[in-house]
């Protein structure tokens, strides 16, 4: 394994990436939800709604939500009928926002919070029915380790779900998307969040993330089966899923 890894378009020591990503999300946490609306023109809400519906956690199932951020997936899963959601994130600042949002929504049962590194999940083998991660896998240092850990904690018959930015499949859209990502998004970050650098990193991290087919291969290598993906918005994002059988 290389001693370096990607941090946007830069190569950095593997041991430093986690702390660098943590700094990014500590910076963006207070305006994270507003910035998501601005950056995606509100479309992220539709993507997440489709994602939650695809997870389809039932009243008999526990969902482990990795890199859960400010809680959108967790809240959606509970509203759809999940028995229990464990909302985790490596960044306490993001979880603090999620906890405040949960209180504002009157959510007092069925939701647990934990600071968790998705590469080292502190749960027993075969302990949950569903695992999800939305817009978080690309920020992990060892993505394959996250996939292996997700499979480990899944019960047989359990399913892993990932929502992530991916490779745009429509060429004219790809050109527009590049302008939006590298010109518009950093400017929005500078004006609204007073943080151009963090949003430049986020745009760059999307381009460094594996494409749909490569991520499917990584999931299979981690031991997941019946791996599949579904493109949304022309491949700007994709939902990947795989089973532990």
Automatic annotation (TrEMBL):
Keywords: Menaquinone biosynthesis, Methyltransferase, S-adenosyl-L-methionine, Transferase, Ubiquinone biosynthesis. InterPro entries: UbiE/COQ5_MeTrFase, UbiE/COQ5_MeTrFase_CS. It comes from Falsiroseomonas tokyonensis. This is Ubiquinone/menaquinone biosynthesis C-methyltransferase UbiE. Belongs to the class I-like SAM-binding methyltransferase superfamily. MenG/UbiE family. GO terms for molecular function: methyltransferase activity. NCBIfam families: MenG_MenH_UbiE. GO terms for biological process: methylation. It catalyses: a 2-methoxy-6-(all-trans-polyprenyl)benzene-1,4-diol + S-adenosyl-L-methionine = a 5-methoxy-2-methyl-3-(all-trans-polyprenyl)benzene-1,4-diol + S-adenosyl-L-homocysteine + H(+); a 2-demethylmenaquinol + S-adenosyl-L-methionine = a menaquinol + S-adenosyl-L-homocysteine + H(+). Pfam families: Ubie_methyltran.
């Amino acid at each position: 394994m290389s001693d370096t890894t990607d941090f946007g378009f830069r190569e950095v020591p593997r041991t430093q990436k986690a702390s660098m990503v943590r700094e990014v999300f500590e910076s963006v946490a207070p305006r994270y939800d507003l910035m998501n609306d601005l950056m995606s023109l509100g479309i992220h809400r539709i993507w997440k709604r489709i994602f939650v519906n695809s997870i389809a956690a039932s009243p008999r199932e526990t969902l482990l939500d990795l890199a859960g951020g400010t809680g959108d997936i967790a809240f959606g899963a509970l509203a759809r009928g999940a028995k229990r959601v464990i909302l985790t994130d490596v960044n306490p600042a993001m979880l603090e926002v999620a906890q405040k949002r949960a209180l504002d929504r009157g959510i007092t049962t069925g939701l647990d919070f934990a600071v968790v590194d998705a590469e080292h999940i502190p749960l027993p083998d075969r302990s949950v029915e569903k695992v999800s991660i939305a817009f978080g896998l690309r920020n992990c240092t060892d993505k394959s380790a996250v996939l292996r850990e997700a499979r480990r904690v899944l019960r047989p018959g359990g399913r892993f779900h990932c929502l992530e930015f991916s490779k745009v499949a429509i060429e004219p859209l790809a050109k527009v998307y590049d302008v939006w990502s590298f010109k518009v998004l950093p400017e929005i970050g500078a004006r609204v969040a007073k943080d151009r650098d963090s949003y430049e990193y986020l745009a760059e991290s999307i381009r460094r993330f594996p494409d749909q087919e490569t991520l499917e291969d990584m999931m299979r290598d981690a031991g997941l089966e019946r791996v599949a993906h579904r493109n949304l918005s022309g491949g700007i994002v994709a939902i990947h899923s795989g089973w532990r059988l």
